[in-house]
Amino acid sequence: MKIKYLGTAAAERIPAMFCSCSVCTNAREKGGRELRTQTQTLIDDGRLMIDFPGDSYLHQMKYGINFNGIRNLLITHWHSDHLYAEDLAYRMKGYSQGIEQRLEVYVNAYTMKFIERAFELEGRWDTEMFNFHIVRPYESFMIDQYEVFTLPAQHGNFKADCFIYVIREKSGPTILWTHDTGYLTDSMFEFLTQQGFHFDFVSLDCTSQTLPGKISAHMNWRQNLALIEALKEKHLASAKTQFVINHFSHNGGQTYAQMREIAQREGVMVAYDGAEYEITAPQRN
Ligand SMILES: [Zn+2]
Ligand SMILES: [Zn+2]
Ligand SMILES: [Zn+2]
């Protein structure tokens, strides 16, 4: 399985549009990996796309992606750095030509309301262009060769309006995708343990980076380390698991270079826009 991070920032991006903090100033000066756009990810060159933020347009230009060729879109939640439904509406007739297949969109009920609102603004609903699948917490379903498991995230309204996912490829690796969520609850851990998962790759919400204290709707670096520990303790992860931190806010206080230095000491990788990871499933007995 190949994972490509198209965007790795929280909603404001880095630099944030109106901000003069040290992280944003550094990003404007240095460019490169210090620049971050909103969170969006491709699995296996677009066999599955996770999230559709406002920066999707920028991503398709920057990486040369033809969104028309993508069949499956998995949406985590309704925040605009993960879903900008007004742009999704441009897949309808009159805005796009040459579309040969429906886009299969997997989304929870609350988040679906944001798509409905955008389509209502258009005054129409093009049923030939989309299939919407409403997903519920603690269930699983297939998208092509991927089995997807849903967990309600500690995020948004904290009322199962935001999901995180486990994605398990048939005869392939299993990944845990935690964007966006605070620290996992006992019920979330219980579900993961019951399923008997072993994660080959974990993408961690590190929005708040080195900010102190307990963050509730996201995580900081300390909570990431605690989660890595807990996953290993519960045999959900091992020394072979690849851990990547992602979804950074400029308010977290660290540049890419600084965060990389901190994370490297613990063997954790730091995502950046355009980063690609190849994940292989080790042979297990
Ligand atoms: Zn976000
Ligand atoms: Zn800033
Ligand atoms: Zn969010």
User: How many structural domains does the protein architecture include?
Assistant: 1
- Structural class, from secondary structure content? alpha/beta
Each distinct ligand: zinc ion
Radius of gyration: 18 Å
Gross CATH architecture: 4-Layer Sandwich
Strand order in the sheet with the most strands: 6-5-4-3-2-1-14
N-to-C series of helices and strands: EHEEHEHEHEEEEEHEHEHEE
| CATH fold-level assignment | Metallo-beta-lactamase, Chain A
What's the CATH class label? Answer: Alpha Beta
Biggest sheet details: 7 strands, mixed
**Residues in β-strands, percent:** 15-25%
Unreliable residue stretches: none
What does this structure look like?
By secondary structure, the protein is α/β, with parallel strands linked by helices. The chain contains 7 helices and 14 strands. The protein has a single domain (2-278), classed as 4-Layer Sandwich (Metallo-beta-lactamase, Chain A), CATH 3.60.15. Strands 6-5-4-3-2-1-14 form a 7-stranded mixed β-sheet. The model has no long low-confidence stretch (mean pLDDT 96). The structure holds zinc ion (3 copies).
